[in-house]
């Protein structure tokens, strides 16, 4: 067992990091939601449909070039070594340049395929603005390539106060720019400009404000070997993982028009409020904690994992029940009639929240260096997404596509359960307490829906 002299400071850091993560995500998501409510009144759904495809492409190229840079700093024994960190920073910059070049190639490819008539008329890929917006937006990724490694060092040590301030400052500035440009020009370029402002402020502030060694260009062969050794499994997982994050919009963009995709993006945005908060806590608290416990107190990993899993199950089952009932009323309260169908989509997609309970064990993959399990789980998810979404749409339209998206969230469970059982981490209790928690969440959702209907009358 972890003795009290070690456990007390660790608990304190966990609680502090959790608090700052919740503050950051609460404020960040409030800004996003507030901004989205204003921007949906200034811009058409088509603009959000365009950005949905572009953001999906960003995630795609980012995942296709991912070698686990940030995770490496958190788990690696040389995570505080300046030579290792400077090599990581150099790799990060080169990656940003390569992604920008790849984005230009994608833009040219989309333009040529559209001219050749490969895309269905009226879909997002036939919009004449798309190739130009793609190239402009991808400067966002290039700028972020220069972000200091001091950010990941702070995450390794669960010191999140200054990171929170930087994130919120850059997001607020970006929102102001978006609103000014959207009011003036009323097109998708307002969203692009805001994203570039956010990236620039985030990078500059990180270098100036965060404590730690300054980055410089450097190439340490041994550090590159370590990065590549860990990153090869991250890369294999990310090759498939990009479809899990944005494949829905990439695939839907080819079979529905930009209006339907824009409405769907609103449902995803609202559900993303919960997913982003959950995964932020996972990445900022659960992953560093499991990594530290595995490095220093491996016999206590099961106990720490069990506590995190129980907390995740309570949150995920309860929230799924709440949104399943209250989702349509939330959309009706926040948006005008053009986005009403997003409420039905939100209610259905909320069932996928339960599937995210496997994320706790997946942090165990990374903490224990067994990243191959992550690649296997993502392969299962990608197979369900790529086969199920087009088939579901062909058979039952958008409803069939939504069913496939829900099932995708559960497709990695067999791999996760196998890993957990082999490493003594299997915790079936959440599945037993899950149904009562879902029902309790649904009851709260009914009360919330009733209150929102009264407000709207």
Automatic annotation (TrEMBL):
It holds the Pfam family Polysacc_synt_3. Keywords: Cell membrane, Membrane, Transmembrane, Transmembrane helix. Its main location: membrane. InterPro entries: Poly_Biosynth_Transport. The lineage of its organism: Bacteria, Pseudomonadati, Pseudomonadota, Alphaproteobacteria, Hyphomicrobiales. Belongs to the polysaccharide synthase family. It is a multi-pass membrane protein. The chain crosses the membrane at residues 47-67, 88-112, 132-151, 188-212, 233-256, 262-287, 308-330, 381-406, 426-447. It comes from the Bacteria. PANTHER family: LIPOPOLYSACCHARIDE BIOSYNTHESIS PROTEIN WZXC (PTHR30250:SF10), PST FAMILY PREDICTED COLANIC ACID TRANSPORTER (PTHR30250). The keyword Ion transport does not apply. GO terms for cellular component: plasma membrane. It is found in: Cell membrane. This is Oligosaccharide flippase family protein.
């Amino acid at each position: 067992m972890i003795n009290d002299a070690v456990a007390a400071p660790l608990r304190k850091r966990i609680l502090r990091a959790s608090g700052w993560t919740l503050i950051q995500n609460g404020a960040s998501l409030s800004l996003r939601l507030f901004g989205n409510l204003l921007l949906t009144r200034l811009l058409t759904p088509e603009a959000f449909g365009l950005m949905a495809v572009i953001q999906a492409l960003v995630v795609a190229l980012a995942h296709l070039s991912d070698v686990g840079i940030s995770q490496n700093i958190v788990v690696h024994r040389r995570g505080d070594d300046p030579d290792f960190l400077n090599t990581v920073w150099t790799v990060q910059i080169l990656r940003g340049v390569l992604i920008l070049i790849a984005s230009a190639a994608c833009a040219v490819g989309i333009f040529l395929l559209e001219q050749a008539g490969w895309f269905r008329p009226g879909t997002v890929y036939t919009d004449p603005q798309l190739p130009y917006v793609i190239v402009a937006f991808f400067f966002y990724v290039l700028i972020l390539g220069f972000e200091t490694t001091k950010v990941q060092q702070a995450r390794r040590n669960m010191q999140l106060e200054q990171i929170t301030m930087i994130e919120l400052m850059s997001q607020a500035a970006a929102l102001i720019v978006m609103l000014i440009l959207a009011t003036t020009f009323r097109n998708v370029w307002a969203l692009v400009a805001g994203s570039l402002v956010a990236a620039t402020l985030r990078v500059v502030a990180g270098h100036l404000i965060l404590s730690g060694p300054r980055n410089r260009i450097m190439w340490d062969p041994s550090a590159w070997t370590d990065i590549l050794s860990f990153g090869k499994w991250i890369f294999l997982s990310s090759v498939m993982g990009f479809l899990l994050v944005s494949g829905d919009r990439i695939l839907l963009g080819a079979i529905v028009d930009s209006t339907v995709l824009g409405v769907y993006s609103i449902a995803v945005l609202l559900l993303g409020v919960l997913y982003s908060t959950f995964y932020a806590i996972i990445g900022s608290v659960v992953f560093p904690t499991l990594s530290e416990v595995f490095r220093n107190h491996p016999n206590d990993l099961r106990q720490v994992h069990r506590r995190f899993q129980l907390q995740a199950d309570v949150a995920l089952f309860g929230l799924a029940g709440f949104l399943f009932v209250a989702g349509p009323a939330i959309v009706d309260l926040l948006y005008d009639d053009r986005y009403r169908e997003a409420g039905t989509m939100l209610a259905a997609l909320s069932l996928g929240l339960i599937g995210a309970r496997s994320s706790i064990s997946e942090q165990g993959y990374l903490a224990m260096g067994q990243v191959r399990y992550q690649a296997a789980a993502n392969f299962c998810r990608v197979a369900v997404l790529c086969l199920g979404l087009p088939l579901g749409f062909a058979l039952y339209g958008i409803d069939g596509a939504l069913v496939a998206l829900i099932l995708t969230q559960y497709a990695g469970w067999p791999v996760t359960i196998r890993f957990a059982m082999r490493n003594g981490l299997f915790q079936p209790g959440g599945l037993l307490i899950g149904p009562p928690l879902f029902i309790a969440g649904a009851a709260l959702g009914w009360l919330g829906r009733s209150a929102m209907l009264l407000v709207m009358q």
